[in-house]
Every structure is written in C-alpha cells, then in structure tokens.
Amino acid sequence: MIDLDELELIEPYEQTAEEEEPQLTFAQLGVPGPLVHVLNNDHKTTAFPIQADTLPDSLEGRDILGRGRTGSGKTLAFSIPMISRLGEVDFTDGMSYNQFRKQVRNIQHKHLYERQQDDFTPHPRGLVLAPTRELANQINDVLAPLADVYGMSTTTVYGGVKYIHQIRDLRAGADIVVACPGRLEDLIEQGVLTLAGVKVVVIDEADEMADMGFLEPIQRILRQIPDSAQHMLFSATLDHGVDKVVQEFLHDPKEHAVDEATSAVDLMTHHVFEVKRADKPALIRKLASGKGRRILFTRTKFQTKKLAKELTQHGIPAAELDGNLSQNQRDRNLQAFESGEVNVLVATDVAARGIDVSNVELVVQVDPPQDSKSFLHRSGRTARAGKSGDVVTVMTPDQRRYVKHLVKRAGIDWKPVKVTPEDELVLSLVGEEADPIMGWKLDTSKPLHGRGHGDSRSRDRKRSSRSRGRKDRGMDRMDRPGSPKKTKKKSKKNDKFADAKFQDTKFKDSKKRRDRYEDRDFDRRDHRDFDRNDRRDRNDFDRRDHKNRRNFDRRDRGERNDFDRNDRRDRNRSYGKQHDNGGKSHRNGHIGHQSRAHMRKNSTPFSKSRKRH
C-alpha cells in the first residue's frame, strides 16, 4: 500500500498561446530508432508536454500515474513505452534497418511455431483497458503502426460485435489487446485467453470506467496480471474508487500532470448563449452551417437522431453517434466525419471521450450536460494538440440557474449573453457558411477502412471472398521469406485449413464440431416443424369433423322436436273437435291439463258412443 500524498509530483504544465516552451524531439527523449522513424513518417517529430514528462520514466519501466485533460496526447504517451518494452529486438548502434527487420522476422517464425502447438492458449503481452468502443478503436489505430515495426499485431475486444472475429484474432497471436472490461472478462471466463503473460498494462480514462461501473471488473482483471508487469494509469481525477486501484496495483508510481482536470484552457474560448425557446432551433442550425468541423452534443439518443435528421433536411449534412447504433453504423458515421464527408457530428455523451478527431473548430452543447465533468469532456473535443477552439453552451431562460452552477463548478467564467440567430457574435463563430446540400444521404456502399477489427486483421492476413474464407498468414506477407505454394487441387484451394503450416487445429476441430451441431439442430428443427404441422392438420380435421357432427346433431334434434310438437298439436286439435270439454274454451285448439282430465272423466269411450248411434 502506498500513500498518495508521498508521490513524487511534477508541477502541472499550463500551456498558453504566448509561451514558447522548448519542445523536445522523440529521439532526445530516448525513443528507439524504429519508432522514431514511424513517428517522423506520420509528421510527429516533437513531443507534447505529457509525453515529454512521462516518456523518460515509462521507458525505464516505472509505473506511471498520469493526470490531465483529454486531448493532451496521453495515447502516444503510453503507446511508445509499451511497444518499446514488448519489442524483442534491440535496435543497437550501427545496426541497419534491414538487419533489424531480419531479426524481427526470425522472432515471428518462432511465435508462429508456438501457435501451431496443440496446447497453445492466446496470451497477449500488452493490455490496454478503455471505457468505450470508440476509444478502443482510436487507441488501436495509434498502436497498430508502431507495433507493426516490431512484428507485433494488435486487436480490439469489446461488446456489440460477434465473438468469432475477436476469438480468431486472439488465436492468430495478437500481442497487444485493446479491450473494454466487460467483453474481456467474458472471454477470460470462457478460457479463450489468459493474462499470465502480460508485461505492460494500461488503464486509460480510469475515472470514466469507474463512473460506468467497471471498477470491480477492472480489479478482477488486474489481479490476474503478474505483479512484475508495468502499470500505467491515466485519469482526469482520482474519485469514485480510482485511488483504491492506484494504491492496490501501482508500485511506487511516478505522477505526471499536464494541468488540473477542472482548470480552464487558455486555447479554448467558452461562450454561454441564452436564447428564447422558439429561437433555439434556428440558432442551432446557424451554428452548424459553417464549413469547419463541429460537434453538437445532446442529452438523449432520441434528440441526437431527431437533430441530425432536421439538419440534413435543411441542407446541412450531419451524422449521428449514439448508443442505439450498431458498431458498423457508428464506425461508418465517425469515418464520414473524419474524412470530411460531413462537417457536423451530432452525438451523445458516448462520444465525449471516444472521439479523437483533429481540427474540430466548434463544440456546441445543445443541451447542458448532467455534471461538470461531462461539461469538461465535451469541451475537450476541441482545442486539441495545441490548437484553438470555441465551446458554445446553449441555454433557455428556465435553465439559467442550473447552467450557472454547472459552469462555475467546471471552473469557467460565467458570462451569459442573450443572442438571436443573426447576432454578430453568432455569425463570427459560424465563419464562412457552407453551401446547402439538399437530399444528402450517407453512402453505405463504401467499405470501411481503418476502423475496428478490419484494420488490425488487414496487417496480418489476406482477406478474400467468403467462399475461400480467411487464411491466417501469421506475419506480414512481404516480410515472410517463403510463402506457401498454391496447390492446384480445387478442393485444397477452397479449404481454409488446407495449409498445415498455418492451420489452427483447435479452431478447426471446434469448427467441425459446430458444423455437426448445427446440422443436428437443423434436423431436429425440421422434424419438429413437421410434427407440428402434422399435428396441426390432424387437429384441424378433428375440429371440422366434430363441428360437422355437432351441427348435424343439432339440426336433427331440432327437426325431431319440431315434428313432435307439430304432431302433438295436430292430435290435440283433432281430439278437441270431436269431444266437448264441458263448456271450457280452447285457445287455438290447445286443451289444458284440467280440461283433458275433465273430458276423460265425463266422456264415454269412442267405441261405446259409436255403438249407441
């Protein structure tokens, strides 16, 4: 157990537009040459403040406790030391890049042989825990090119997608896993992978995961990781139990902070607009009509969908991002925003920490958030990487008191301004308006690129049609010294397990068993459906026959009753005409009980009366 008060603390760095701090290059910070080469190709030559502060300690293997706002460069701050430590080839002085790659290929052959063993269980060596699927994909996009230099592969694990793709990537030998705690714990319980071989673990946005209820799953996951592993935890605050995680799992951590989580950012300008409720839709459309990228935040999923539809109908193409969308839809909408196909993204708080898009000029909070922490994380989508940005919070007169309390708790100056859609201040934030595009619709026919599992798989395998299946290559095709020869037999060509060198015996056996189970279940369903149909037909026949018999009995009984009544009536009438009833009157020839008794008593038999005449 450690005392948080005794941690060695580096003074927070507050970046202003007027300061000119000397910027260090990654090479000066001790980053290995191959990684420096990749970063230079991506136009990343100098380090951000949190990277410059943490890299010397993290590259030495120390546990790190990073505190700072979003957009400060934390992803690269933990990605570089993770790849540097997990890389099994040292880039020494005097070594050429070709020699380095040759040693990397030898290591790849070694790992490929290990995966062919029957008792192989996926055991990643690096683990990154993230709260949302979007953030996991963002981290994977940063890690993948760095890991590829050392011949390592990455994959993402999160809910909302099928298990089979994630299991296939893990069994293909993923070295680094970027995961959400829920799905990762599920796969561990199924025995798909083990964390006994993890050497570096990163907990990103720990406070957000604690708010989402992932604190206990995180603790259970971290207890399965060896104590000797390097732990790096990044969090804006240490509340909601995050401090307990730090005390239990981080050993003598070095704390680094860029700035306080609740401090205002000088490069970010906040505006609080008070508008009449009737003018609010027009104000939102005006703020969304500019050419630059802008994100509009709402509080509910329904409002997100409704606002995106309304903006599109008014000629402002907008994509939505909320929890009701499937993972494929979320990736496609986010890619359309990143590529510039749309300039407006309407999102709920699910995107407040999961979006890392550069050059976002304006953030509009259509509805005030629930708390000050969400306010800061929404605002953090702009003014990233040292660039300026504006944040507009829209409120109606009845929300004035609530927004005032919210803004002050976030550390922002309370300066509300009453505006209309055509005010000069509003027009200055809009800038140059984009031409309206009527009838716009997102093109869903284009394939996704660089998002989710597809990006990590494309680095390690050749994707072909479904008829041929996916063949695990195990390493980069260009770097492999001898690729297996293609067989001429058609049956071999169409068999994804034909190449013994790259086949996965466990996966093959499980696939065959699953096929047998599916065939058996299909036969059972087929027989069951036949029995149901046959039973239904027989029941319908029995019902019809019973109904017919019942109707026949009713008709027959009715006819017999009518016959008896008519016969009795006729006999009574004829009997009443032949005999006097003692002065009693008859109604319609009907003779009552007393009249008939009287006649039987006073009358003479028919035979005797006939003789008398």
UniProtKB/TrEMBL annotation:
Entry-linked InterPro entries: DEAD/DEAH_box_helicase_dom, DEAD/DEAH_RhlB, DEAD_box_RNA_helicase, Helicase_ATP-bd, Helicase_C-like, P-loop_NTPase
Top-level enzyme category: hydrolase
Biased composition (Basic and acidic residues): 472-482, 494-508, 515-583
Keyword terms: ATP-binding, Helicase, Hydrolase, Nucleotide-binding
Helicase ATP-binding domain span: 55-256
Keyword Chaperone carried by entry: no
PROSITE patterns, alphabetized: HELICASE_ATP_BIND_1 (PS51192), HELICASE_CTER (PS51194)
Residue ranges constituting the Helicase C-terminal domain according to the UniProt record: 279-425
Protein name: ATP-dependent RNA helicase
Organism: Bifidobacterium magnum
Lineage per the UniProt record: Bacteria, Bacillati, Actinomycetota, Actinomycetes, Bifidobacteriales
